[in-house]
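ugh finaly. both done.
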Amino acid sequence: MVSRPASDEDVYLRNDVQIAAKILVVGHFAVGKTTFIGTMSEIPPLRTEETMTQAAAHIDDLRGVHGKTTTTVAMDFGRLTLSDRLVLYLFGTPGQQRFVQVWEDMTRGALGALVLVDPDRLKESFDVIDLVEQYGLPYAISVNHFDGTPVRSDDELREALDLLPETPVVTCDARDTKSSANALITLVRYLQERAR
């Protein structure tokens, strides 16, 4: 038997599962989408990060953001196998308004979205939630707690983000596998409930 080298498709896609689900990981600029996908992906994530330049300094608002030197310019991609039957393909969208045209293509075939939210910058999530709703994607909110960010109650978050009562809200730390997995599980369960 002659072995062949692994192709990119072999690394990123799995053909031995019954259900492959496309999930978007969305959120405003610098909320932790790339970190979240990197934390959750069982394969080396595909990233399209570029160094931030002075040209974008007047466009990308870095207030409340510390140590950010790169930004996603197309997408992030990762894979997570949940069982022999189900694999999640995670697609991270760019957070800046100037990349919104990428969203239309990325929403095709997506079952739902996990919306990452920074509790210090809640109002920056409005445009993202509006886009998710515009494309008709069911979604869950995951509040990404960075070091020192305020803890807000679910009721406070629901009111601030004007969420429907059935929209799941969960907290996570995008750097932590367990809490990030819990956020994804919350979204998957919500999608399953809606499918019944």
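ok and the 2nd:
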Amino acid sequence: MTKSLTTFKYLSFDVVGTLIDFEDGLTSCLKEIGTENGVEVDGEEALALYRAARYSDSTDLFPDDLVRVYLLIAPKLGLPAEKAYGERLRDSAKTWKAFPDSVKALADLKQHYRLIAMTNARRWAFEFFSKELGNPFHAAFTADDTGTEKPDPAFFHQVFDFVSSEGASKDNILHVAQSQYHDIGISRQLGMTNCWIQRRHAQKGYGGTIEPAEFTKPDYHFTSMAELAEAVRVANEN
């Protein structure tokens, strides 16, 4: 049986895509560049091109890699392939918005758990994301801190070592994420309890996130952070 939501001490979170709306951030910036150059950019097409370009053998850490990605996808979108625009796309990460339910949900969840951020973004970008989210985290692990990216098990093991230093274990963590590829599949393999936030439940495809080789049925499944926070509230009242 799936553990009760009241049994966990920690909630660990994927940040970009689960709490921060990076798809809207990316496409809004590309559409602005398009408008300035007389080009209409289709958001879903842009995300598909981004996904293909991002997950190649020559990637850099995120979001610095957006400069390289932009130069690859710009010609296919009819945009000028100029480095300055790529740098603008990278720097747009500083202003990406939280999903409308993220801040309140995190504030509510913080009353019951210690919150841990686990992001493939670099530390400089995470600092902007954390501020946008109200700085709710007890601890944070970025690509700079871990030297690797999810779904590498080594990323997760560093988090396990951290909670162990506080007298807990991975059994005390509920891992919350929208990415089947980066988070849900590997967390299951590592024996964690997980919660899938299906942000794209009303849309087709995987958007800006790579498609997993196989779908992993999560322990908990919600379409928003608000639903998770409500489920926790109810669990604690019963």
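summary for the 2nd one i guess: DSSP finds ten helices and six strands in the chain.
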